[in-house]
Amino acid sequence: MRRLYTRKYTGKMPLPYLRKKNAGWQVQIRLPVTLDPSLRLSPIRLTIPAMPAIEARRKAVSVVSAVQTAIAEVERLNEHAPMTPRASRDAAMDRINRVLPTLLGLDALAAPTATTDSRLIDGTFDVLAQIGNDRATGEGLFADPRIRHEQVYSAALQVPQIASAASANSSRPPGVPTEESANPIDDLLPNPTGSPS
């Protein structure tokens, strides 16, 4: 991995936390000496999918902000009830995992094709918050980290066809031909009786 700090890769300002890794990107942040005095723990590493460098930098800014907020919360806790460096890192990761699905949803809403259906938006963010909680606690319907549930729900916020299918009362998305508009799930399932629907 090599550090990206020139304007060619990161835009107008350097972002030392962002690194290119394979086809994607990685945000890497160490715990401060207040939580890891010997700096022996591995950094917190979070992956960003493959995308242009400028877009990756914008996403990294949000991720770094979430990580720094989590670390600040753990530092406040550590002042009242000192933790080992490992416990501090685990506590920070717990807070980061809780918020990452919500960050993904916010990023989806920034897309030019994002839905404006307030009920769909509110319901989706409730689910994204639950995904973060289940992932952090290791319990619940969304706990399995091998299944990226947050990708599915965030897609409902920015892909018109999925948003249309997810909202029972929504009409065909503007600019989407009728044949490309998602059908209600009942129309997609086979008729078990064999009779015409």
Describe this structure in words.
The protein is α+β, with helices and mostly antiparallel strands. It folds into 2 domains: 1-98, no CATH class; 111-189, no CATH class. The chain has 7 helices and 4 strands; from the N terminus they run βαβββαααααα. It has helices at residues 7-10, 53-80, 85-109, 118-137, 149-158, 160-166, 185-188; strands spanning 2-3, 18-21, 24-29, 44-48. A 4-stranded antiparallel β-sheet has the order 1-2-3-4, covered by helices on one side. Helix 3 runs parallel beside helix 5.
Keywords summarizing the entry:
disordered N terminus; 4 strands; 2 domains; alpha+beta; 197 residues; four-stranded antiparallel beta sheet
Mind sketching the topology for me?
Blueprint: E1 2-3, H1 7-10, E2 18-21, E3 24-29, E4 44-48, H2 53-80, H3 85-109, H4 118-137, H5 149-158, H6 160-166, H7 185-188
Antiparallel strand pairs: 1-2, 2-3, 3-4
Helix pairs in contact: 2-3, 3-4, 3-5, 4-5, 5-6
Helix content: 40-55%
- Based on CA inertia axes, which overall geometry fits? globular
Structural class: alpha+beta
Rg, rounded, reads 21 Å
